[in-house]
Amino acid sequence: MRGLRWLVLAVAVAAGTACERPTSQQARTGFAARPELLEFGAAAVGRTKAMKLRLANEGRASYRVEGARSSLPNVSVPAFEPFTLTAGAEHEIEVRFTPDVEGAVQGQLELMTDASGGAAAQVPVSGRGVKALVEVPESALDFGNVNLGLVEMREVTVRNPSDVESPLVLSVEGADADEFSAGVGLPSTLAPHETRKVPVAFSPVRLGNAEAALHVAVCDGCEPAVVTLTGTGVASALEVTPLRVDFGRVAVGATAEERITVRNQGNEALSYKGAALLEDPSGVFKVVSAPALPNDVLPPGGVVELRVAFTPKGFGKVRDGRVEVAVRKPKTTSPGPKVTLTGEGGASCVEVTPAHLDFGPVAFGMTATRDVTVSNHCREETSVTGLQLTTQAGGYFTLAQPPSSQPVAPGGTLKVGVTFSPRAGVGSVSSGQLAVTSMQRTSSATDGVTLTGEGRAFAPCEYALPSVLDFGQVPVGSEVALGVTLRNTGTQACFLSALQLASGSDPAFRAATVANSVLEPGKKATLIVRFHPASEGEFQGLAEGWVSHPTRGHPMVNLVGRGVQGCFSVQPTTVDFGISRLACGPRTREFMAYNDCPGEVKVAGMTLEQAGQEFAVSGALPATIPAGGRVKLTAKYAPVEEGEDAAAVRFTLKDGAVYNAGLVGRGLAKTDQTDRFVQEAEARVDVLFVVDNSGSMMEEQQSLGENFAAFLSAATAAQVDYRIGVTTTGLDPSPGGWSECPGGAMGGENGRLFPVDGTSPRIITPETPNAAGVFAINTHVGVCHWNEQGLDAAYRALSDPLLYNLDDPRTPEANDGNGGFLRDDAKLAIIVLSDEEDFSSQPVAWYETYLLALKGNDPTKVSFNAVVGPEDLSSCTTASSSGSRYMELAHKLNGVVDSICTPNWAASLEKLSESAFGPNRTFSLSELPADPGALVVRVDGAPVTDGWAYDARANAVIFERLRAPAPGAVVEITYPLGCP
Fold first, then answer.
1. Positions of E strands within 265-401
2. What phi and psi values does residue 637 have, to the nearest 5 degrees?
3. DSSP alpha helices (H): ranges in 647-726?
4. Which of 600, 685, 481, 683 is nearest to 14 (CA)?
5. How far apart are CA 696 and CA 782, in angstroms?
6. d(Cα 898, Cα 908) in Å, to the nearest integer?
7. Is the distance from CB of 202 to CB of 229 less than 8 angstroms?
8. Is cis: bond before 410, omega within 30 of 0?
9. Alpha carbon distance 277, 533 (integer Å)
10. Whether pTM exceeds 0.85
11. pLDDT of 5 over the 70 cut
């Protein structure tokens, strides 16, 4: 194949190392490859990920592409017919990545062409193998138009095509994520080859278009599969602008006002009764003006303007508030549109952090530098016009850069370096002040940062540090990370000012500076250095540090490495263990040695070099690897102290060539997590009873009605504003034949509140005359039905068209809608009574997702309770079957489970009363505790050692019935974090 030459496409980790050919070379060869960075990202181990590489002819003469090959076994190009590219033409080829092990895979791809010209073209490419896989066939869900306050449901399919269990990790991201939810209550793993439907809910709280994205973790570290979620919140032809009022940063004590415009763009008059502040957790917002309209009507084309105000009480961002505009269609009780209020208290919209900068102990004769960050939260560019440092006592505080005026773009930041130099012999605490003056238009603001540091005399630092860090031979485009470790070998603490890459080092080396610290005897500091050769040849660099020592205070380490093109490789070249908690035991990773040479390769030696004993490596090397062979190796990491760790695995070939794999990880001491809750008063509760109307339920219905006083016990004690409605488990009218049901629907309430014919009040409130008698009538729903579908009945009672309409438009009966039952700001409690299993149409997780979405995905606002056939039917012979689906949902939604054969209905209804009306007793933890016995619970700052228990299944602290925290109490739960 004379006259052909190979153009090299290097495979690299970092995009920043790409080398572009000079323009003159491009003109001669005409060869170009797109993308310039062929990045595979994460791909599942054992599965193939493909990308397209576009070859183009940007010259004047044609050239021919004969073939392609990869120097690595896990990056390949399917065979293709040779082709010619004329001037300006393009052609795509496919490049495939099939990782064998976890970790970054790097190598090179070669294209054989007859293009003339100079140096070879180089295109950086990266790939990383990860374990586990989940497939998501859908890419988008559109919920269409949904009225405010309603919930629309869709489903997404997830599949595990692998032979191993895969984690199922879901999250909803985006500006409107609060209006969508997905997969509530589903198991967190997918069994091998399992396919599952994930319920997704859209519950608009704002008018207009909403968009978010459901992220499904495909594999560990992979880019997630993204399902676009769209929907539109509607309320007739109503326009409300803006839907989010951002007051920006307002000076503490000052008041800012904004306008909200409400316009009726339809042809139908709307009911309008002003506006009210729905949420104001920080107590800083106010509805200043909500004009009244004649007859409380907003006519077609009518406009009303509201005014809202923000008066911050302190510095910082406040919790969002919400205003509800009481405008809706006539004869409905649907909630009005809500407008979010947000703002921040402060002297200006420029934030300077931290407010206090502590340098800690610094050795006499040395310095330490730290950064102050200036963040521009303004809507326009601002300028930092003044930086003034004042040393008030002790040592010296100086600026690390000139105090010149510097612009900061909106949303941008500026780093201000401050250096502390202790005064010789002054061991007391030094203090100072940094004043940062910023200017926007004609207004200026000055923020202060207090500075502290301490001069301390340290004994001469005795330390161990290698003189050379040799990266050996590294394939061009690959990256190896090794560590420069400085360890205190003396018996006294010593001071490390910094450990960093020295100026002038070849760009192939990079490292993040290790800040100043005090090294106790035996402790270490590690600078992670990454070597990424972009071409063949020798590279050099220097790592340097400063320690407390009169003559050896500036330790230096030479960095050397060579970029090579070879057929032996180790992948990944850097095995990164990430963060490992010290108490969690060792972590294990695998990596591979590949021989892609024409003949066998003898690995004469494999050694592990490290500053400590954190890493271990095992495998079948040294050995002779045949042509095309590979050897799998295992690395183990068990950190013994906090901080960065690094090691080098050196492979010495028979010809003397040395290849390295880097091992890096970070040890983290066991940390505690504190979850904080504020107990809210349940002043408003809506209770929906779903009563089985099958032939075996007569006695239970009677007992329920006779014990209404027991049910209301907690509500009466707490003066709860309740609404109570009853529906049945029947969806379709009974065909008759044995008994007829009262109420006008023949047992087919289909979610409508009983009685459908209105012969008794259908919603019971504290003002209902003879409430106990009304409840007894409403729970005698009859015994005419046979198909119990209680979950569907609850769903239909709480969904369109029943939920907000006073009349069901599908039926001839008048005023049989459920409008007026559900309130937006009330807790929802559902209580099912049945002696039969539920036969509803959807999985239990579907109903859980829906009910939570109906209440803004706040689990403290929903409870589901089940008085049903128990698991052990020998204790309840009158029950036809266990109510397992009802019990499953009750366990997930903070509810009470009791037997339909309860011998004491009064006691059972008291428990239900406390679940529905009582204070929250369940506090879910955000993380998994390492030791549940180490939980510490505080209420209003005081330790609480009894009256609560940890529920491992729910991962929650649950208080006893009589020990629940009082309304307004602050509950803090501290616990050690568990291992991943």
1. 270-279, 285-289, 297-298, 303-310, 316-317, 321-328, 338-345, 350-353, 356-363, 368-376, 382-393, 396-399
2. -130, 125
3. 698-706, 708-711, 713-718
4. 481
5. 10
6. 7
7. yes
8. no
9. 61
10. no
11. no
